[in-house]
Design brief:
This protein is an alpha/beta fold. The protein has a single domain (12-248), classed as 3-Layer(aba) Sandwich (Rossmann fold), CATH 3.40.50. Helix content is 43%, strand content 14%. It has 8 helices and 7 strands; from the N terminus they run βαβαβαβαβαβαααβ. The chain has helices spanning 21-32, 44-56, 71-84, 108-136, 158-178, 196-204, 208-214, 228-235, and strands spanning 12-16, 36-41, 61-65, 90-93, 139-144, 183-190, 246-249. It has a 7-stranded parallel β-sheet, with helices on both faces. α1 links the parallel β1 and β2 (36-41). α1 (21-32) runs parallel beside α2 (44-56) and α4 runs parallel beside α5. The longest helix has 29 residues, at 108-136. The relative contact order is 0.14. The structure holds nicotinamide-adenine-dinucleotide. Residues 16-17, 19-23, 41-43, 46, 66-69, 94-97, 117, 144, 146, 190, 192-193, 195-198 line the site of nicotinamide-adenine-dinucleotide (NAD). Nicotinamide-adenine-dinucleotide binds next to α1 and α6.
């Protein structure tokens, strides 16, 4: 039987933000497709909760407590990856939080903190993974961006949007630099995917959920598992001619004009 182009057996993936949400779902999907994993997060207990089911699948999962806003910790993690696996085929750059505050109020320290989490963290991981992948002539990287990479959200997202815009350009520049040497770099741009901070914001503003849904033709918010198929596709040879793409994962949100008529059942 011919092997599936989605098969990740023998591949090694590193996923940040693997303790919960999109990073956890991505990690489980890659393991289900056959990959072994290094799992990074600041939440050690959550990492163990992701590693356990991966172990049950018969795949290796090595949890590493790492704060992606600190390049020293990232470099130490990649040194550990070299010792444990000696290769990297896929990087999922998922971790990182933002400080939300109106543009006229936000402190420059909070802008910088957001930038360190979302831009330096992703870039440093891309650089470390990219060096190894270029040496091997093979690899795939996925940066998690946001609809805020290419559109504005308001509601205090200034630091987040500026950082996510940089993630879009990071993806385009790296794919342009590295595609000819076997390394692909793509971005996934999610709309609202339920996570603890979104739940909190929706609880604080009861109209917020309806506002989100009014812009999502698919009629529901995202769930972390919505990333699973896309993650396996982008990590695998099934997407071997796809690089530099910014792929919305948004239930149709970006495609719909603000004046569009959206019908939900
Ligand atoms: N959920 C959404 O609606 C949505 C939409 C667009 C983009 N995103 C982006 O996707 C990424 C993941 O979001 P999620 O919904 O899975 O969130 P989540 O809160 O469920 O998970 C984020 C994970 O990242 C970890 N983390 C946070 N800061 C870290 C750091 N400095 N170093 C290492 N780990 C860190 C957390 O411990 C957590 O496990 C974030 O960058 C977020 O901005 C999310």
């Amino acid at each position: 039987m011919p092997s599936s182009p989605f098969n990740l057996s023998g591949r090694v993936a590193l996923v940040s933000g693997a303790a919960s949400g999109l990073g956890r779902a991505m990690s489980l999907a890659l393991a289900e497709a056959g990959a072994d994993l290094m799992l990074a997060d600041i939440n050690s207990a959550g990492l163990n909760r992701t590693a356990e089911p991966i172990g049950h699948l018969g795949r290796r999962a090595i949890p590493v407590t790492c704060d992606v806003s600190d390049p020293k910790q990232i470099r130490a993690m990649f040194a550990q990856l070299d010792r444990e696996f000696g290769r990297i085929d896929f990087l999922g750059n998922v971790a990182g939080e933002a400080v939300l505050a109106p543009p006229e109020i936000i402190s420059l320290d909070d802008v910088e903190r957001t930038w360190r989490n979302l831009v330096y963290g992703r870039f440093c991981c891309c650089q470390e993974a990219g060096r190894r992948m270029l040496a091997a002539g093979y690899g795939s990287i996925v940066n998690i961006g946001s609809l805020a990479s290419i559109t504005a959200l308001g509601r205090g997202h200034i630091a987040y949007s500026m950082a996510m815009g940089a993630v879009a350009q990071m993806t385009r520049e790296l794919s342009t630099e590295w595609a000819g040497r076997g390394v692909r770099v793509n971005a996934i741009l999610p709309a609202q995917v339920v996570n603890p901070s979104l739940e909190k914001r929706m609880a604080a503003d009861p109209k917020l959920k309806d506002k989100f849904l009014s812009g999502i033709p698919a009629g529901r918010l995202g769930h972390p598992d919505d990333i699973k198929g896309l993650a396996v596709f982008l990590a695998s040879d099934a997407s071997s001619w796809i690089t530099g793409a910014l792929i919305p994962m948004d239930g149709g949100n970006l495609a719909a004009n603000a004046g569009a008529t959206i019908r939900h059942q």
